Amino acid sequence: MGPLRLFPLLSAVLAATVLTGCGSSDPASSSASSGSSGSAAASKAPGSSAADGDFPRTVAHEQGSTPLKAAPKRIAAISTGQLDDLLTLGVVPVATTRADYAGLVPGYLRTAFPRQAEALGSMTDIGTRTSPNLEKLAAAKPDLILVNSTQGALYPSLAAIAPTVVTKGRGVNWKKDLLTVADAVGRRERARTLLTRFEKDAADQDEKLGGEHTALSMVRFNPDRVRMFGKKSFTGTIADDMGLGRPESQRFDDISQDLSGERIPQMDGDWIFYSVQGRPGKTDATTYLSNPLWKKLGAVRGGHIVKVDDDPWYLNAGPTAARVVLRDITGHLGR
Fold first, then answer.
1. E strand or H helix that includes residue 272
2. Contacts of 265 (CB under 8 A, 6+ apart)
3. CA atoms within 13 A on the CB side of 271
4. pLDDT value of position 101
5. DSSP three-state, residue 14
6. Where is the segment annotated Disordered (predicted)?
7. Of the ranges 27-31, 108-112, 138-142, which one carries the lowest mean pLDDT score?
């Protein structure tokens, strides 16, 4: 397998402000110019003092710091959101993992980066996010490994293979994680520009869509459970960036809570955005969606229910996914 491939950011705005002279006609411009919630928090993410593109550098991360002698050319991305981060920054890794019940490359990323189809197809599949195959990882000969802190126990083993940078993980931290990944590949200012643009675009929707008086409910049907998402979920932070409200039942300070049939009323909101992970027949989605309690929900009776793509909404957490979520919300609420 050859080295990773670098390509320009796809946003027309960023092409003018960040990558002047690097053109692209990819249709994913809005996707690639994404960021995430809370620039104040994101700006506090650890970072090297090196300017973009300058190496050697030392990257501070969740398990210490890692010196990088040269710009990495063969990156392995193990954890949630890191493939999204890299692609949005203009980098294709040589190896990555897959989520349960999902493919190696989420469909929304294939759509956003069509010109990278060949490079994405040549990536080494190194197993699942929760159980990466270290032999396959080593065989891919990475010069940088990215992983998040939920897999922190693997850090010594990974660091023995190649320099390793550990991001925080969990959806609420996706801005900070983007900046850490960007620091490792020498593109931190690009990431800051992405975040600034995203936050402005999200904040511009506040009053247009009803602000905090419009409550968004977020529900996911997994093969083994049904969940509603709280303030610290990836999508919860985007609703916050947009100044939108959440149902009282979903203002809890965590990523998600499991639901049972009798708790269907807690799914209600002004709008419900739900997804089904994997095959619908493998989940309880049909049972819930045909339940009389579901049919009585205000959002259902008002026609304010939207089935969304599970990958960007509830399975991944990155800047291009954030653009998809922002687009979906504004597209439906702004009708």
1. strand 271-276
2. 293, 296, 297
3. 23
4. 77
5. helix
6. 25-67
7. 27-31
